[in-house]
Amino acid sequence: MISPVKIIFALILATLTAQAASDGPGKAALDFLEKVRQGKLNLEPGGDTALSSQTSESKKQQIARRYERMARDLGTDPLEIGEIKLDENFAAVIVRKLGDFDPSKLQIFPVALVKRDDRWAAAPVPASFENIGSIPPKNLRQRLEQLEKWMLLQQVNDLEKLREQAASLARKKIESRITPEKLRSLTAQQALAKFLQACEQKDKPMILGLLGGLSSKLPDDWSDRLKAAEKLSTSESRSLRILTAPEVIRIQVSEEEEEDSVLISIAYLDPASSKRPSAAPNVEIYHFDLIKDSDDLWQIYLPEILFNDDADELDADEEEDDPDRNC
Fold first, then answer.
1. C-alpha triplet 136, 139, 141: angle, nearest 5°
2. Residue 262's beta-bridge partner residues?
3. Which pLDDT score, from 0 to 100, does residue 279 have?
């Protein structure tokens, strides 16, 4: 039987550990980067960084411009704490930006931090201890240089590891919605039906699985397919309504089958497509190529016109030119 004293000691230790984690350099680095991407960073001395009061105005402007670029790189993707290296009242933290299914969005942000008055604050220059005020003795300057070198090295090494992990994690997310065995067992019509249902539900993993995300060798145009899946799972654009709006009527009108491919034509009737109440809804026909890859898995090739970036602008221009609009 565990004594009450040991239980109390364990609880105190757990509380102190949790408090240290919540108040530590990792949490401070995350909070700092969140303020950067929201454009809410106070760059004045005593604000959100360890900026020295002796920093010139021109240097402050240079640092501010750097943070503007960093905010664009941060985007909206989630962040997580990576490795942390401590040296007394100085720390180097690696923060990872996760890119969901797109490895090109993965980035590593090294953050240098200084502890003052029991509070961790980010150094004003990313991955550097520049402009933090008076520099201590030579031996500590050398230690800070070692922390800076470690951050730059980790930025390269960690990104490589993260990319390797990302591919595996993305596949697991897709397989949680559809397995290779299930996809292999479907007919072309069933695969397309699942894809259209996934578009309505904005089910990104399923969409990617049917666009080739389960193949041992990803399609050559995988970056374009990732962008298409992103639009289908997030966009409200008019050009994609035919795939994402539940009220759109979809009817298969033809099917042409070859050895390892099938061309299926779908007629779409969108009740909201008419610009005048008295006009009949437009019926449009789009063609979908479904091709078996080397793993005997279906890959869907989408009509390019749906992802024309100018499509919504053209629709808007037509509305402006419509004399009966708002009548």
1. 50
2. 257, 290
3. 59
Q: What is the pLDDT of residues 173-189, one digit of tens each?
A: 999 999 999 999 999 99
State the residue for tokens 């992802």.
307
Could you tell me the residue ranges of all domains in the chain? 4-174, 187-321
For the domain 4-174, what is the CATH code? 3.10.450.50
pLDDT of residue 113: 96
Q: Report the distance separating Cα 326 and Cα 192, nearest Å.
A: 37
Which residues, in sequence order, are CB contacts of 232 under 8 Å at separation 6+? 199, 202, 204, 207, 240, 243, 244
CATH fold of 187-321 reads: Nuclear Transport Factor 2; Chain: A, (3.10.450)
- Rounded to a whole number of angstroms, the CA Rg of the chain reads 27
Which residue stretches of 43-137 are H helix?
57-74
Domain pair 4-174 / 187-321, same fold:
yes
Compute how many other C-beta atoms are within 10 angstroms of the C-beta atom of residue 17. 10
CA 101/CA 97 separation, integer angstroms: 12
Distances (CA, A) of 102 to 7, 74, 129: 46, 14, 32
Q: What is the DSSP letter of 299?
A: E
pLDDT tens per residue, range 7-26: 444 333 333 333 334 469 99
DSSP state of 132: S
CB-based contact 215:327 (threshold 8 Å):
no
Q: What whole-number distance in Å separates Cα of residue 129 and Cα of residue 116?
A: 14
- Burial (Cβ within 10 Å: 0-12, 13-18, ≥19) of residue 43: middle
Nearest to 264 by CA among 278, 250, 282: 250
Q: Say which residues have a Cβ less than 8 Å from residue 244's Cβ, sequence separation at least 6.
A: 199, 200, 202, 232, 235, 236
Q: Which amino acid is at 96?
A: R
